[in-house]
Amino acid sequence: GQSLEQPSEVTAVEGAIVQINCTYQTSGFYGLSWYQQHDGGAPTFLSYNALDGLEETGRFSSFLSRSDSYGYLLLQELQMKDSASYFCAVQGSNYQLIWGAGTKLIIKP
Amino acid sequence: NAGVTQTPKFQVLKTGQSMTLQCAQDMNHNSMYWYRQDPGMGLRLIYYSASEGTTDKGEVPNGYNVSRLNKREFSLRLESAAPSQTSVYFCASSEVPAYGYTFGSGTRLTVV
User: Hey, is the C-beta of B97 within 8 angstroms of any chain A C-beta?
Assistant: First the structure.
């Protein structure tokens, strides 16, 4: 079967760094995406990794290791507005994205 | 620049009623999608349209139908609503399949 695993909840302190992991098992792989969703809002696209390595976009970075079927999202200099759910999603061998169940990031002052 | 517009934002239906959720995008994207999201869960694909004139089933298509009216519009129809279809529905679009989705603000549907 196809599945993605990510922690259900992560807690961090404002100003700190947090890493949200995602492991996947899919038939076919074309890329790993990350999306952010605030409570009551719509998901918004954060990043996409098709190749191994680190992609950096401001305070957010995303990493992929295809050999380990693993990726992570790294958030630096955490701000209260980063409190949200974060979803990893894998592009499989068809047009469909396979989504993880999401990680709720709780940030404490 | 509206992005993806969904209507309605909220809807309450009685079991057995029908309704159509509307979605339109103004980004000239080729691909469009309908998802449902249940509390504490990820997104599950209902139907998608890789390009104008094509539609395909996703993970949970039962009880739904779709129409890709033109490049801009992709509607989702519930023919006979059931309580199990209570959910938040999101429409999304992308220039290329499965990359860089833009989502609408969602439709919160309750079936009683």
Answer: yes
